[in-house]
Amino acid sequence: MLERLSGSWSGSEIMFDSPWSAAGTASGQFSFSHSPVGVWLREYRQQRADGSEFLAHEVYQQQSNGEIWLFGFDTFGFAPLEPARGRLDGNTLTLLKATPRGQARHCWTIADALDYRVDISVQDSAEFLPFLQASYRRETASPSAPPLS
Fold first, then answer.
1. Which superkingdom is the protein from (predicted)?
2. Which domain holds residue 59?
3. Which of 92, 93, 100, 126 would be a feasible disulfide site paired with 108, CB 3.0-4.6 Å?
4. What is the pLDDT of residues 114-136, one digit of tens each?
């Protein structure tokens, strides 16, 4: 599935109120590419309607058991203590990350577009709430990127 994300993407995003950001809209752009060392890299830039921006560098690695790990570094500044972990189910990749601040569930779904959703539970709460919803279109594909559907 990770190879299906290869290329440059852009789209619209909806952010929900959270301890880290206010609700609002943004545009997001990212590139997703395979590294010579066998991992996938995502370079992400979010431009918010208020003029501020959020940047992230993410490293994805598929394990021999099929599990996918994500290590993310971003302008929030929280270093990853453990990777987000998850698996592919059909056209959806779901990754779950636990930190002292709570949990984040990242869901990527590939259909006609690439839909991305992040839900969070803050500290000891068992309830997940929306944090980000986005829909992206591929701007350019890498030479080896297969079609979305």
1. Bacteria
2. 2-140
3. 93
4. 999 999 998 777 799 999 999 99
